[in-house]
Design a protein that fits this description.
The protein has helices at 2-9, 27-40, 68-77, 87-103, 120-124, 140-143, 148-156, 179-188, 193-203, 213-222, and strands at 17-20, 44-48, 56-58, 109-112, 135-138. The protein is mainly alpha-helical. The longest helix has 17 residues, at 87-103. The termini are close together.
């Protein structure tokens, strides 16, 4: 919705639309981004982390779907991101987009992110300008006082929509999601957790310090009603 509003108010030669794919977005999220391109006839630059240049350009058809960019970053770092050391958003999304924009010759720009008016805690955590960075982060929906109900109403009027439940959005089993959501994903789409278990096995560590994904699968099978009292952690990579 934010992108649509900006495209209606900013000339085409003054805007660049980017989507940073970690390889762990749900397939229907990728379809949703592609549907936006098709239905609104807008060019979206699909960007993925790449160790060689910091980023590479892909398309909907060639975008990673097995966590390849994310796995490559973990291999380079030698350890997993976690709630304390959350380098995944910076390395997989923010920096690749920054490098791409700079490759086009831009020295400074505004970086718009989709934080709503009813997300004050996320808005408060936005960087308020940094001399070291060539861009300033802005939140148009927040300043327009757009809330979740407004976003849902907007999409109800469109001919396409994101076809997945809310808990599957962003990285499919992000460690910042509430444990109850992760357990529900394991119950409904058990194949998704396999990549996360593989990364934990390869590094000998865990994404969450209180339970491994393998043990979470065990808990779902043996004790499905336990471990449902934790809360979700805000992450700036959330997109509506």
């Amino acid at each position: 919705m934010m992108t649509k509003i900006l495209c209606e108010n900013i000339p085409e030669d003054k805007r660049i639309i980017c989507f940073a794919n970690t390889g762990k977005e749900h397939e229907l999220t990728l379809k949703f981004v592609h549907d936006y391109e098709v239905h609104f006839s807008e060019k979206i630059h699909w960007i993925e982390y790449c160790e060689v240049n910091g980023y590479k350009l892909v398309e909907y058809e060639t975008a990673s779907r097995q966590g390849e960019p994310y796995a490559a970053l973990i291999k380079k770092r030698g350890f997993l991101p976690n709630p304390v050391t959350r380098f995944c958003t910076t390395e997989l999304k923010i920096r690749p987009i920054k490098k791409f924009i700079q490759s086009l010759g831009y020295k400074e720009w505004e970086n718009a992110v989709g934080i709503r008016y009813d997300e004050p805690s996320r808005y408060a955590r936005l960087p308020k300008g940094c001399a070291k960075e060539p861009y300033e982060t802005i939140a148009p929906l927040y300043h327009l006082r757009v809330n979740k109900a407004d976003v849902l109403k907007f999409w109800e009027s469109q001919t396409f929509n994101l076809e997945i439940p809310e808990y599957l959005g962003n990285c499919d089993m992000c460690f910042l999601k509430a444990r109850s959501k992760l357990k529900h994903i394991i119950k409904t789409e058990p194949k998704i957790v396999e990549w996360w278990i593989q990364q934990e096995n390869q590094t000998g560590s865990t994404f969450r310090n209180n339970i491994s994904y393998k043990k979470l699968v065990f808990a779902v099978k043996v004790m499905p009603e336990l471990f449902d009292d934790d809360t979700e952690i805000d992450c700036l990579c959330t997109i509506d």
